[in-house]
Amino acid sequence: MATAKLRLLALLFSLTLACGGPRGGVRLVAAPPPPPPAQVQPRPGHVYVAGHWDLVDDAWSWREGYWVPQRPGFSWVDGEWIDAGGYWRWRAGHWVPQSDRGSPGL
């Protein structure tokens, strides 16, 4: 039983490393380029998930934004590249209760 648990933990750890670390972290030295300008018109009942740069085969690739249905009582927080002291890490977008944020998403 203990051996099975250890194997499972080793597998999960390996998958975490293969995916770039916890929460999709990617170790990058160069910052991503600035986002291209976007003009987004409000769409009732929906939230716009902003586009972002993604690293594909060691080159930056732009991922277009898209609309998702609004979740009542929640606000959308866009993903962002974070300077983690010498490297950049992607923090994925996510929903938060409006009481934690104070206002609904765009």
Please outline the helices and strands:
Elements: H1 2-18, E1 46-49, E2 52-56, E3 59-63, E4 66-69, E5 74-77, E6 80-83, E7 88-91, E8 94-97, H2 98-101
Summary?
The protein is of the alpha+beta class. 20% of the residues lie in helices and 32% in strands. It is built from two helices and eight strands.
The coarse silhouette is globular
What structural class do the secondary elements suggest? Answer: alpha+beta
* Largest sheet, spatial ordering of strands: 1-4
Approximately how much beta-strand content do the residues carry? 25-35%
Task: Encode the helix/strand succession as letters.
Answer: HEEEEEEEEH
Number of domains: 1
Oligomeric state of this protein: single chain
Largest sheet: 2 strands, antiparallel
Distance between the termini: 49 Å
Low-pLDDT stretches: 8-23
Number of helices: 2
| Helical content band | 10-25%
Number of strands: 8
Overall pLDDT, averaged? 77
Whole-number radius of gyration?
18 Å
Description:
The protein is of the alpha+beta class and 106 residues long. It has one domain (24-101). The chain has two helices and eight strands; from the N terminus they run αββββββββα. It has helices at 2-18, 98-101, and strands at residues 46-49, 52-56, 59-63, 66-69, 74-77, 80-83, 88-91, 94-97. The strands form four sheets. The protein has a two-stranded antiparallel sheet with strand order 1-4. A hairpin with a 4-residue loop joins β6 and β7. The relative contact order is 0.20.
